Amino acid sequence: MSSATLSSNFLRNGCLWKGGVKNLEGDHKRNAGKVFVKCSVNTKTQKAEKEVRLGVLGASGYTGSEIVRLLANHPHFGITLMTADRKAGQSIGSVFPHLISQDLPKMVAIKDADFSDVDAVFCCLPHGTTQEIIKGLPQRLKIVDLSADFRLHDISEYEEWYGQAHRAPDLQKEAVYGLTEILRKEIKSARLVANPGCYPTSIQLPLVPLFKANLIQPNNIIIDSKSGVSGAGRGAKEANLYTEIAEGIYSYGITRHRHVPEIEQGLSGAANTKITVSFTPHLMPMSRGMQSTIYVEMAPGVEIKDLRQQLRLSYEDEEFVVLLEEGVVPRTHNTRGSNYCFINVFPDRIPGRAIIISVIDNLVKGASGQALQNLNVMMGFPESTGLLYQPLFP
């Protein structure tokens, strides 16, 4: 085949693929047999061509900055509005110097935001403030909310765990929980998606398929999770100072972490019975990354190989959830900066029990990456679009 023919047949969005067209329809399949030849992106040209206009509310936080970073290579989504009350009037590059190359509008206060040039919104605001703001947004907007404000179906549980009444109960009825690989069909037709928390993502992805297949018991579930410090947000807090975090491990939220009802809600739905877990999170002296080590009791007659087989069947066509080879221990290093979740299963020394290890990047698959994955689904684009960054190592 001549180079001219190759260019005309296989050039799309500046990316050249040899051996076939880049797969845009079946987004769960790898581009098997295709060799990437060249990808040239003119960001200024592509900015004008992007057909979906986005607002990022709360762009000065870690999840907001990750949204901006991930969108830099998205061929269809472009940012037309960014808000940050305390940084109003500033550029994203002045707040996050690693994003200085991005040609984006200056941040404005939320009260001054103009949504006339916006089609969809990522809401990266703290819980408690998000409900009123989303309630006031134009009905035509698609919204992915990264706060906890719409994750719990029962508003009385929200009040119990977050210490304040829910301010948008009608919107709560509309909200769809955004665990993409599990609830893809519901997300596709949603207007408002509640993006899952980081810990619940790392825990539900391995456990939901096992509960649905009745392979594990609904009792005696112990979850030990560890997160990088970025999970606590960018606000200045004494507990997050370098001297408070470095060279040590800190357990927090023991028995009362706010992700507990979200975890139990998802697992109870999968098991069709009330699930109560023993969950303890720990803050680790690293900037990003998350590991959940989960101890479960297998159903009678079930073996480790059955758990592995079910996870393999559940995720074999998924891009972002990977069951590792038998015996390989998942490491947070190997998902850093990416939207991947790596999982594996091991036999416990106690007969009839299994140990499941799940790792993600708390800021990507645990927050902004999954949010982008969800908006891709909502807008009808292949859900891996803009997300095929490989993990950063070392």
TrEMBL record:
<protein>
    <recommendedName>
        <fullName>Probable N-acetyl-gamma-glutamyl-phosphate reductase, chloroplastic</fullName>
        <ecNumber>1.2.1.38</ecNumber>
    </recommendedName>
</protein>
<dbReference type="GO" id="GO:0003942">
    <property type="term" value="F:N-acetyl-gamma-glutamyl-phosphate reductase activity"/>
</dbReference>
<dbReference type="InterPro" id="IPR058924">
    <property type="entry name" value="AGPR_dimerisation_dom"/>
</dbReference>
<dbReference type="GO" id="GO:0006526">
    <property type="term" value="P:L-arginine biosynthetic process"/>
</dbReference>
<keyword id="KW-0560">Oxidoreductase</keyword>
<feature type="domain" description="Semialdehyde dehydrogenase NAD-binding">
    <location>
        <begin position="53"/>
        <end position="190"/>
    </location>
</feature>
<feature type="active site">
    <location>
        <position position="198"/>
    </location>
</feature>
<dbReference type="InterPro" id="IPR050085">
    <property type="entry name" value="AGPR"/>
</dbReference>
<keyword id="KW-0055">Arginine biosynthesis</keyword>
<comment type="pathway">
    <text>Amino-acid biosynthesis; L-arginine biosynthesis; N(2)-acetyl-L-ornithine from L-glutamate: step 3/4.</text>
</comment>
<dbReference type="InterPro" id="IPR000534">
    <property type="entry name" value="Semialdehyde_DH_NAD-bd"/>
</dbReference>
<dbReference type="InterPro" id="IPR000706">
    <property type="entry name" value="AGPR_type-1"/>
</dbReference>
<dbReference type="Pfam" id="PF01118">
    <property type="entry name" value="Semialdhyde_dh"/>
</dbReference>
<dbReference type="Pfam" id="PF22698">
    <property type="entry name" value="Semialdhyde_dhC_1"/>
</dbReference>
<dbReference type="GO" id="GO:0051287">
    <property type="term" value="F:NAD binding"/>
</dbReference>
<dbReference type="InterPro" id="IPR023013">
    <property type="entry name" value="AGPR_AS"/>
</dbReference>
<dbReference type="GO" id="GO:0070401">
    <property type="term" value="F:NADP+ binding"/>
</dbReference>
<keyword id="KW-0521">NADP</keyword>
<comment type="similarity">
    <text>Belongs to the NAGSA dehydrogenase family. Type 1 subfamily.</text>
</comment>
<keyword id="KW-0028">Amino-acid biosynthesis</keyword>
<dbReference type="InterPro" id="IPR036291">
    <property type="entry name" value="NAD(P)-bd_dom_sf"/>
</dbReference>
